[in-house]
Automatic annotation (TrEMBL), chain A:
InterPro entries hit by this protein: 6-blade_b-propeller_TolB-like, WD40
Pfam family, one: PD40
Stretch forming the signal peptide: none
Region called Disordered, residue ranges: 291-325
Protein name: TolB
TrEMBL record, chain B:
Subcellular location: Cell membrane
Ranges where the record places region Disordered: 1-20
A GO molecular-function descriptor: transmembrane transporter activity
Protein name: MFS transporter
Residue stretches spanning the membrane: 160-180, 186-206, 239-258, 270-289, 301-319, 325-348
Feature: compositional bias, Low complexity: 9-20
Length: 325, 416
């Protein structure tokens, strides 16, 4: 090793370089903050037909259907969220708060402040609104991978009724039935709620002991009835007759559409493994999110299993204000 | 032979303490600052990584678990190799710079690699490799800059600053996300810039050799054999064996927190906050405990720390549920870290000749880390089969047994 260079000059150089770096850090943060500010004010309208509402870089956005690659020129912007859904003029938004595992469910009927804010414990996972816009649902998850077993997590799914303020904090408070008998295992988890048009019936996934079921829920009687096994993240079609969902095989999920009456089950054209709650953009089109190199990407594919998937836009959590049948 | 040689060197150094009494060498403070900013930078990434994968990239949650397994074993080899290279070329600082620099660069990789799980796995592996490379040279630099009788204090100062950084990291990350919602790239860039500050502090303010320190230059070429012989000294061997045995019977942190939350009937929401309790106590106690170790004997403190941990296990099993008991367990757990982490390095370093010290410290750290990983594995399997309560009792009994054996196995001379 050579002798240590003159101490004072070295110290001065070191301090100068560190100051430059700290100044660069501050400048960078301010520049990003300004860029975020210029992203624009609220212009989203949850009831505007012919549009898709989705989340991109942590903000709810809205584009006309078919805007495709021009999605950058979005027609509307909404609140900061990780997951969102619209229907019947209501926007529900799940926002992860800084800090471990805490989020807010925010419900908007128009621009500005949310009409309802509910704190929930977990990271945003799924969001849905009933066709009438009266009910909102959410799923949050909590990771247990670091201490229970790798890849394990638990979820909480809840519902809020905007009409009377009834708050169903967790489907675990409902009574589940499997094969006609009360199901009493303690390890049940629920996720992926979807609503029927009557504002009383809903569907969700129940998991227990390594199995999953499609459950039909009754909000008035607070019951859940198992209909079928291996149906995750159900999504009811606008006509109320079919359910799009992800079906598990091994460690992959394939999107399927199940006809409720008769049980016809059709795999969709998307062959990649999809971990998302699909959404109906209309009675014939399913939208879902795939991870992409530049972030999550929304694809669409025909609901009858034909055709090929095509990219809709960069973002996630896409839903459409579907007109009522 | 080596032992008597170094002991003699240590006494001469101790007889002429550098600087005013009660102060640690500036190099140690500088290394502490390097660790502070580096840990803050690393914990920023750790705090936002799950959210980034989930929302920034849209990678499903299940794929996240698969990432974890990639890097656990890989760092051991780099740690040993880095330690040896540092001794062989007498360039501890250079190896440390490579380690810190590599970890810093991985932060810029996150925005670049995109959604590929392989790319992210490789980045995490590179980050861990950097951590493996730098730890032993850094601790060796601390021991080479400090008189032997103040090593406990020096490591106390270093670990205080290190833990302080680990606590600051998540706060910085979440603060940034408050200012810039969902801007994960900004978190990575800021994390990189902060890590780069750490590298600059290391390059400009850490001195490889204090003036007048000759022990490093003599003795000819450092070969693998020299290093191995230095580590194979009876004293060091026993310390490694005892530390490894204790590592196997130490319950993994996360198991402890889960058991604590359940046993003390704390709300589940507080589970992620429990590690903060340990860290705060560790930060506050590292310096006083290090000073106590200099006076009362470092090995005694090291064993005493494990005794506190045992007390924590007993408290966990028997104390009435509630916040008070939970706080007591966390304080004991934090004190355990304060009395074992840096103190073990302070104890073992003087017994290893200066020219093979990085290798020696790397061996001790690797043995301890592998033993703890193995212990966590055994505990996990046992907990799945027997339940958390019974496994904890078994672990406590095993810890008590090993602690007794360790006290008998290695009894350093009265001077220590």
């Amino acid at each position: 090793m050579t002798a240590w260079p003159a101490g004072r000059a070295r110290t001065a150089t070191g301090i100068a370089l560190i100051c430059v770096l700290l100044a660069a850090t501050t400048g960078y943060v301010l520049w990003r903050a300004r860029a975020a500010d210029s992203d624009g004010a609220w212009s989203l309208r949850p009831d505007r037909p012919g549009t898709v509402v989705y989340v991109d870089r942590g903000r709810v956005r809205q584009v006309p259907r078919g805007a495709g690659e021009r999605a950058g020129r979005s027609a509307g912007k909404g609140p900061d969220c990780q997951r969102a859904a619209v229907a019947g003029g209501t926007l529900v938004c799940l926002r992860g708060l800084p800090g471990p595992m805490s989020s807010d469910v925010r419900v908007y009927r128009g621009p500005g402040k949310p009409q309802v804010t509910l704190p929930v414990w977990g990271e945003p996972s799924r969001a849905r609104v009933s066709p009438s816009g009266h009910l909102v649902a959410w799923t949050v998850f909590r990771s247990g991978d670091s201490y229970v077993a790798q890849g394990q997590f638990s979820t909480t799914a809840g519902i809020y009724d905007l009409r009377d303020g009834d708050h169903y904090g967790s489907l675990e408070d409902f009574r589940p039935y499997v094969g006609g008998k009360p199901y009493r295992a303690e390890d049940v988890n629920y996720w992926g709620i979807t609503f029927a048009a009557d504002d009383r019936t809903f569907y969700a996934t129940m998991a227990s002991k390594g199995r999953t079921w499609l459950m039909r829920g009754d909000l008035t009687r607070r019951t859940l009835t198992a209909l079928r096994e291996n149906v995750e993240c159900p999504s009811l079609s606008p006509d109320g007759h079919r359910i799009a969902y992800k079906k598990r095989t091994g460690d992959r999920w394939r999107l399927h559409v199940l006809t409720l009456r008769g049980g016809r089950d059709v795999p969709l054209a998307e062959t990649a493994s999809i971990d998302d709650q699909p959404a109906w953009l209309d009675d014939d089109t399913i939208a879902y999110t795939r991870p992409g190199d530049s972030g999550p990407t929304v694809f669409t594919t025909p609901a009858d299993g034909t055709g090929t998937p095509s990219k809709l836009l960069n973002g996630a959590s896409a839903t459409a204000p579907v007109p009522r049948p | 032979m080596y032992l008597s040689h170094t002991r003699a060197a240590d006494t001469t150094r101790a007889a002429t303490p550098a600087g005013p009494a009660g102060r640690v060498p500036p190099t140690v403070v500088a290394l502490g600052m390097v660790s502070l900013v580096t840990d803050a930078s690393a914990e920023m990434v750790t705090a936002v990584l799950p959210m980034y994968l989930m929302y920034g990239l849209g990678v499903g949650y299940l794929q996240l678990g698969a990432l974890d397994g990639l890097y656990t074993g890989a760092t051991a080899l780099f740690r040993l190799g880095g330690g040896y290279a540092a001794d062989r070329f007498r360039r501890r600082k250079a190896v440390a710079v490579v380690g810190y620099g590599l970890s810093a660069l991985t932060r810029l990789g996150f925005p670049a690699v995109g959604a590929g799980t392989t790319g992210i796995g490789l980045l995490l592996a590179a980050d861990r490799t950097g951590k493996g490379l730098r730890t032993a040279p850094r601790d060796a630099l601390i021991t080479l800059a400090t008189p032997a009788d103040r090593l406990g204090r020096a490591f106390g100062v270093h670990r205080t600053l290190d833990t302080c950084g680990a606590l600051l990291g998540p706060l910085l990350a979440f603060g940034l996300l408050l200012l810039l919602p969902s801007d994960y790239d900004a978190v990575f860039v800021v994390s990189f810039l902060i890590a780069a500050v750490g590298v600059l502090v290391l390059v400009f303010f850490v001195r490889e050799r204090p003036r007048g320190e000759a022990g490093d230059s003599g003795g000819g070429r450092v070969t693998l054999r020299t290093c191995l012989r230095a580590v194979a000294g009876a004293d060091t061997r026993r310390v490694v064996a005892a530390a490894a045995l204790l590592g196997v019977v130490t319950v993994g942190d996360m198991f402890l927190y889960v058991a604590l939350q359940r046993r003390m009937e704390l709300p589940e929401e507080f589970l992620p906050l429990l590690p903060l309790g340990t860290a705060v106590v560790f930060m506050a106690a590292a310096l006083p405990v290090g000073r106590a170790a200099d006076r009362a004997g470092r090995w005694r403190l090291f064993l005493g720390g494990h005794l506190l941990l045992l007390l924590g296990y007993v408290c966990l099993a028997l104390a009435p549920a509630g916040w008070t008991a939970a706080a007591v367990v966390l304080v004991l757990h934090g004190l355990f870290y304060a009395a074992t982490d840096g103190v073990l390095m302070a104890h073992v370093a003087p017994a290893i000749p200066a020219r093979a010290r990085t290798t020696g410290l790397a061996v001790v750290q690797t043995a301890q880390a592998l033993a703890r990983a193995g212990g966590a594995l055994i505990f996990g399997v046992a907990a799945a089969a027997l339940g958390l309560g019974l496994t904890f009792t078994a672990a406590a009994v095993a810890l008590a047994g090993v602690l007794g054996a360790a006290a008998l196995l290695h009894r350093p001379g009265a001077g220590r």
